[in-house]
Amino acid sequence: MGRPLLLLCVLAVLTGAHLALAIPDEWKTMAPGKCEKMVLRREWRTLTSSEKAEWIKAVKCLANIRHPRLSLTHDQTVLNGEHSLYDDFSYAHAALDSTAHFTAYFLPWHRWFLYLFDTKLRTTCGYNGPTPYWDWSRDHADLFSSPIFDPDPEHGLGGTGDCDSFPQADCVVDTGAFAPTAPYGEFKLAWPIQHYLRRNLTLLTGWFPHERPQNSTIGPEFIKNATEHTTGDFFKFQWAMTQMHNHIHNLVEGDLAGDCPRDLPAEECTGMALSYTPNDPLFWLHHAQLDRLWSDWQVAPVENFDAFSGIPLNPANTSDPHYDVNVTASHMMEFDRLSVPVPVSMMFDHEAYPLCYHYAKEQ
Ligand SMILES: *[C@@H]1O[C@H](CO)[C@@H](O)[C@H](O)[C@H]1NC(C)=O
Ligand SMILES: *[C@@H]1O[C@H](CO)[C@@H](O)[C@H](O)[C@H]1NC(C)=O
Ligand SMILES: *[C@@H]1O[C@H](CO)[C@@H](O)[C@H](O)[C@H]1NC(C)=O
Ligand SMILES: *[C@@H]1O[C@H](CO)[C@@H](O)[C@H](O)[C@H]1NC(C)=O
Ligand SMILES: *[C@@H]1O[C@H](CO)[C@@H](O)[C@H](O)[C@H]1NC(C)=O
Predict the structure, then answer these.
(1) Which CATH class is domain 31-359?
(2) What is the pTM of this model?
């Protein structure tokens, strides 16, 4: 089932989907350079049950606003009414996979991507609470018991899927608020074909030779080492971040690791089909944690703040010095239809306009 996509430099293409892009209305009304309000980001387990339920409801709200759109996948069909505003984010991620991963743009691209998602929850679905992140470093010793996998049908993100009755159940998550039977609306995903959320929590996937358990790079010591020994060196820092990133995707498996749904023919399970990882709402909490670690790194010491440099095309070889020496912070990053292109340099200060958020200092 599983595919080691997250360690491969796969992925062709970009779509040429640079359609007419509008400046969102909420930007026009704000003075440039000024935050009208700061959004707080907090660790998921510090949210109250009702705050968690509000976030989940907003996510499901986006998933239930359906609209037709032309699919740029294999058969160029129009997904009439089967495709939601939530799916747009998975689509953009898949379409831009090759620019957003294993390049210098990994962290800044995802910073803006998360901001766009968070803003959509607020402007379209009325969400008004904190932006959650999952500090998995607290859970490294026993990830499966993490409170992130709470089975509560209203405020829990759910646990592993039902893989015991595979292929009937196809590892569909049957606990928590994204289960097919949970209240407050369906959570059905359009890409790469219609299906429910899937997971298969595992420490050793068997996808790689000499694989280390998925929790080997996410504990506090690993983070401390990765952040303290990389001062001023964005290249080394983001290499460590990439390992943490991959390990959580692969730990959760299913949608978060790009496993294809059972009903998709194997020959179509390639390319973009492997990159719809935002299908799992855990994506947002996982990437917010990576963003938080970057944020912490940026100010300790302050010379890290706008450090920016490339990474090698072969991410498996950290000693390869031939990383892309030509990256610049003025590079305009693309976001499919979600946003106008924005420069990397706009991502450095998340407490300034237009990002306007900060992380709660938590124990
Ligand atoms: C990884 O998880 C296993 C099982 O929970 C645990 O025994 C092991 O100590 C963990 N390793 C790390 C580095 O946290
Ligand atoms: C679930 O993960 C385990 C461990 O990686 C694997 O052996 C099993 O085949 C997976 N099940 C499915 C249905 O993907
Ligand atoms: C600590 O971090 C440095 C720089 O990233 C790395 O070379 C080294 O292998 C790390 N050590 C451990 C024990 O993880
Ligand atoms: C890593 O890159 C360096 C420099 O290009 C090269 O000498 C070395 O053979 C590479 N190692 C592997 C395992 O590919
Ligand atoms: C960097 O840019 C120069 C000038 O455009 C070009 O000759 C060189 O090949 C580029 N290097 C890489 C690694 O892309």
Answers:
(1) mainly alpha
(2) 0.87
